[in-house]
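Protocol step 6 of 9: fold each sequence in the batch and record its structure tokens directly after the sequence line. For illustration, a two-sequence batch is reproduced in full.

Sequence one:
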Amino acid sequence: MPERSEKIPTEPLVMRILVRCPATARLFVTGLTTKANTFAQIEVVDNRLTCAHCGNVHLWTQENVVLGRQSGGRKNEVRGRK
């Protein structure tokens, strides 16, 4: 049986920027996206968001977000920043 060849991505993945609610510990979508390989280089201008879970306004930084895959239909697949 022939081996399946893996698709090698030619472009960086576009990731969703997710923030963890400090009150509920649940992730919520910010509506922002970024390429995974350039996220550390962007300048965060407006980092206040109203939380979908508790309704409070939370501040976020590049250090406390989670990047989640945007495509593939898997809502729960996320990657923590290290």
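Sequence two, same batch, same settings:
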Amino acid sequence: MIDFPASAPALVSSIIIGYLLGALPLADRISRRYGVDIFSAGTGLAGATNVRRSVGRIPGLVVLVGDIGKGMLAVVAATILGIEGTALMLPVVAAVLGHWKSVFSGFRGGDGLATLGGAALALFPTIGLISVSVGMLFQLGAQKMPFSSLMGIVFGYATLVALSVAYERDTLLVLGTGGVASLVLAHALLGHRQRRHNLDWDDADEEWEDAGDAEGVTGRTRFR
């Protein structure tokens, strides 16, 4: 157990470090090197999937590895500071928040899927690797399905739970990871809903503009 009053400075430091690591704008900076504003391209998310689709496979792979590394480093840094057990979930949440709302890119970011995966790799070195691999394989195999990335998290976490039960790993830490995964899923679903809503309004505006143009043409025809 951690003596929280004594470890408060280390805990606060780990949270700050976790946020700053998560906030590193890898997708934004790499995309700009290729002349692409990732926040205006594709889904508008600063993540590996959008970079792969909007910029290219190699940049997307670099962003994926970097985002995974951010989650791993957040856990490693916290461990070095003496944080352990379920308290490690605080810097993990901070890293995900940093990826969502990066101070370096106008508080914009991505979904945090890869960052969470990196944290899982550091928290559960063996079963985490298997679980993340299952999630990524599902995502790659179901790219044409809706919400493939989100379903990848579900399958990856289900694998983590099954393996943790089989190998008797820290149940509270697994549950904490599930809580963060739920936050990531909820954030991603809300973001998807908001983007669809904005797209519907954009389509409606275009329809009104087209209708206005058509009415103007009809009116001019009548006066002729």
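Proceed to step 7 once all outputs are recorded. Observation for sequence two: The radius of gyration is 21 Å.
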